[in-house]
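Pair request: fold both.
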Amino acid sequence: MKKLQVQGVILIITAMLSAVLLSACGKNPEDKELIPKQGTKQEAEAETKIEADVEAETKSEVETEGVGSVDEDWDDFCGNWMLVGFEYSDSIDDTEPSVDHSYYYAEHEWIFSEILIYDEENSLYADYSRTGYATESINGMALVKQDPTSDGQPVARLRNRRDEKETVRTLTLIGENELRYCEQELGLEMGLEHVMICTYLREGSKEMEQKKEYQYVNEVTVSTVQELAEAIQNRTKIILKEGTYNFSDLNCESIKNPNIDWIRNYDGLAEYTVRNVQNLCIEAEEGAKVELSTENSYARALGFEECQEITLRGLTCGHEVEPGYCTGSVLYFNHCSHIAIDNCNLYGSGTYGIEAYNIFGLTIDDTDIYECTYGLVWFSAVEMAAFTNCDFMTSEQYSMFSFIGCYSIVLDDCKIIGNETKSEGTPFITCQDSLSVSFENCLFRGNEYQVFLEEGYNPPTNTIVFTNCTVGDEMQDLDYPEGITQVSYR
């Protein structure tokens, strides 16, 4: 009798376990949203009739949600994506790059982030990581189909149960190698909305070679100085047709651009300054000879104040005045960050080729500076600046290089030729209250001066280092710092 009772209990338990297992074998309703690999639908049709019914119901719901056609290649999401830049908007409905957003280049902000998207058991998942201002790592987020964009670009939500009530993360495949990641912070209780819009590029793609170009929303081609003045806007790349752009030809009162300040002097000519602009490129058209100039001897040829992420490329800039009559530098920067000067020619009679104050991040590549009447470079409170493969030539009067209160200045593979320091007692190079200033692989030739280097009032706080440099100035009885080899060019 006891044996029969035990068998009965076992049968009841077995039946209950079978029911639980059968229930567990059914699809999770959320699984229907996961992005499948190609061929998943055909495999599903081979399953049991119950599963086929669930598949039909799911298909109906998917068509209603408009999450994309079955022949879309969702595997294009797969790969390793690297962050190149980001911006912020103030509305959860504003998820597109815009001139109204300041764009932050990830490398300049010391932020590193990547998204690895992969397929696992016929569905797509993402591992997200970021280091910088804050460190965050989330693995195994499922990609859930969303409505495509109006241009038909596939969109997916990253399902992360930990924060999806406060944070909505979406991915949009813009092109083969570009991915837009939006992180929407919902603060409805406080009436706050916040969106971070990030641009990721596929690791190793050709687009990564041009990653800085993604900061620009607009591209404008101009052929007159008036058009140039009006085109200066945030997140804009300006292409200049061949020709001369003389700022003295501008009617300053006709300029309606709030990004340009002007001051008119007694002779009627004005000085123009670009102010408070972010993500701007002024570039010569490929193969074109472009000159930016001014006839105002008191004006800077081109000036920037309170600007970020500015690029000047392929330009010739200077003053159209008699040598010795100019009191304005060629390029002037004040309270700016991340400035790039590439393949330019900066000529006098500007006082200095480059005059800069309170700058962080300045790169000058393949650029010639010549015929200046005070000196070549004047830096005050400049941090992280680098000259590479630049020529400094035929300038005169005071110190050719002045570094005042600077940090981390490097001149690498540069030629300093035919310059003259005429002022008695003025050194060719001045370094005051500065740290980590260095000349590397540089050539000095045909220059004239009485004192080569003066390190300021407190030499122990000033470090200027010469590495693998050569001087052939043929100056008599001068001692040069360690790291310079003196040779003769007779």
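--- second member of the pair ---
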Amino acid sequence: MDRIAHAVPADGTELINALLTPEGSADPYPLYREMRALGPVVRVWDGLLVTTDYRTIHQVLRSPAFGVTDAEARIGFEPDFLEHSGSRLLSRSVLETNNPDHQRMRSLISSVFTPRRVAQLADAIRAAVAGLLDELAELGAGGAAVDFMDTFAYRLPVGVICELLGVPARDRHRFRTLASDLTATLEVLVAPEEQQAADTAADELSDYFVRLAAERQASPREDLVSALVRAGADGRLDGQELLANLVLLLVAGFETTTHLLGNGLDLAFRHPAAAAGLRDGTLDPAGYVEEVLRFDSPVQITSRLPRQAGALVGGLPLVEGNGVFLMIGAANRDPERYRDPDAFDPTRADSQPLSFGAGPHYCLGAQLARLEATTALPALLTRFPGLAPAGAPTRRPRVVLRGYQSLPVTVG
């Protein structure tokens, strides 16, 4: 028998408002449990639906009846968003477009960002990990505290995606703050000062890729920038789409993986038996990474709007002009999908967390993120068996993209 969705406006609204506080974003999981107790789908604010249900979210993500909030839809409730370069830039990317533009751009990017091309990076990733571990050992000599996020979790994935794109090594140090500022536009609420920082970041990143694209047009190489510039030259991408997708590939190529690595190391500290299993080879790294993605996903929330009349979310109709928040972090701990969902268990079978989405907008970089994490975390724990926290970590004050700003460690 299908479960019945419930509509509880006041309580659901209070819980969403609590989630948007610093305390709520620091630990959202108790709030998710309270939301789930109201039913698989609830109404909040002025008719917006929220679902914490794994099955419902999976269905919505895969259904052609729903789409992302594209520029055409967004301008209806946020008329001035195109005045902000941070919002405007990503609106032309594959992340924030629906068909037919989405399929056209995704097919093109997929043709150059192939599974085979990613798999061929395995040796380069192992070499990059080894080099960063050497630097970590040097920085942590004598018991000095080192920020894992800055010295390793950021530098590994940014180096890998920049290598794929063809971004020179001399420029890679500049992107962490820019990416963090730009991705503030993906949050549920964006403060004016965050929007201003996002606009500045978008302008700087756009200027950078305009110059790099011009260089590759004049002198092509075997990299993704050159491949996408060729696509722009023959009309398969317009100039703004080219620019938007180059910025997206850079930012998405390391932002999520950075926080997957940080969350993964923090969970290793909290679960020493799992860390020991990664060190001695008795625990499958792929299973460990899947459980990190399930237990503390770097992506907590996404949203969809109806694209067909009569679209339902778990049996509830959508109010005209409104969509649905898909609480991925909650769905990954749905007790109807997972046994003992609040326990960290890297030996789970058939986990399939929704952290990289599902359906047409499934993350293009999922394979690469998994490859980097399954390579890096065992190597890190094996090289430094005495690796330990060096003080309290600091979470980023974000609701949608969850991760650490700093994670101080000593290498032992």
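Observation on the second member. The CA atoms of residues 41 and 183 lie 27 Å apart.
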